[in-house]
Amino acid sequence: MNVRRRHISAVALTAVAALGFGTLTACSSDSAAAGDTGTFDVVASFYPMAFLAERIGGEHVHVTSLTQPGQEPHDLEISARQTAQLEEADAALYLEGLQPSVDEAIGQSPIATKIDAAELTALEEHGTEAGHGEEHGDEHGHEDEHGHDHDHEGGDPHIWLDPVKYAEVAEGVGKAFQKADPDHAADYRKNTATLVKDLEALDEKFRTGLANRTTDVFVTSHAAFGYLAERYGLTEEAISGLDPDTEPSGARVKELQKIAKDDGVTTVFYETLVSDKTAKTLAGDTGLKTDVLDPVEGITDHSRGEDYFQVMEANLTALRTALGAR
């Protein structure tokens, strides 16, 4: 994993607690640190985990995210202050395999309730740099041409981009909250059921919205959409691998140019938290359009929506246009 060190200051951490999830309502005490709120304190690794905690916990939880809004989650390096926050929290919610520094910090912390989303649904292998993993001999845990080791041996971690898998994770998180904080179990159960119903509705929107299309193939900047593609019968062709910092080889770029021509690809997708340079260069070289397909790893002012559901519906709109759905 190509990880760049970014130590987050105490000021930034306060900003995370106050501003990190402006659209979520359960953070009743903006500046409260984990352990000092009188509520069930949850430290979440990054936005998709924090969103689950907020929706399921409701008024009974205080959620602190380890990843700042706008920060690429793969880049996170845990600071000493954040390690202390983990030790004071009631629960940690994370996704093993996505952020190695988080995995290590939680593994070493004495926190009583550790909820690993990767254990709540089945992880699968998806192609990385080449899009068709086995065909091109590219497997998880490989080193790319720059010698970066990719720490995804357990499978593709981007499970939240499949509403069905995300619902499975939500159910597991709900059960874990009920066990850890039994006084509010009934509310956690109710909130979980509501969230799962909303995710089922989102799944149906994707199924119907993508049913009649002219092509199955889409090109995106990094291989985040394997689960979504598999769920709806699409083929993801990624410029980079599971690590968005990985630069594609010249051979891969030429291959994508051919794929775009052969499969009627109209659009090269890029995302909001990493550079769009390679995607726009590829699009320019092949005469294709560009658009945003957001992996929903964080919500910023540049996001096409204020929460997970709004951004996912924007993704559906973008995919419908790119794939010629009608």
Summed up:
This protein has helices at residues 10-19, 47-57, 80-88, 100-108, 163-180, 185-209, 226-231, 250-262, 277-286, 308-323; strands spanning 40-44, 61-65, 91-94, 113-116, 217-220, 235-238, 267-270, 289-292.
What does the secondary structure layout of this molecule look like, with pairings?
Elements: H1 10-19, E1 40-44, H2 47-57, E2 61-65, H3 80-88, E3 91-94, H4 100-108, E4 113-116, H5 163-180, H6 185-209, E5 217-220, H7 226-231, E6 235-238, H8 250-262, E7 267-270, H9 277-286, E8 289-292, H10 308-323
Parallel strand pairs: 1-2, 1-3, 3-4, 5-6, 5-7, 7-8
Helix pairs in contact: 2-5, 2-6, 5-6, 6-10
Can you walk through the features of this model?
Mean pLDDT is 82; it is low at 1-36 and 128-152. This protein is α/β, with parallel strands linked by helices. It is built from 10 helices and 8 strands. The chain has a 4-stranded parallel sheet with strand order 2-1-3-4, with helices on both faces. Helix 4 links the parallel strand 3 (91-94) and strand 4 (113-116).
How many beta-strand elements?
A: 8
Total of DSSP H or I helical runs spanning 4+ residues: 10
How much helix, percentage-wise, in residues?
Answer: 25-40%
Radius of gyration: 19 Å
Structural class: alpha/beta
- Tell me, rounded to a whole number, the average pLDDT: 82
Low-confidence stretches: 1-36, 128-152
N-to-C order of helices and strands: HEHEHEHEHHEHEHEHEH
Q: Which sheet architecture does the biggest sheet show? A: 4 strands, parallel
- Order of the strands making up the biggest sheet: 2-1-3-4
β-strand percent reads: 5-15%
Query: For the terminal residues, how far apart are their CA atoms?
Result: 40 Å
Overall 3D geometry? globular
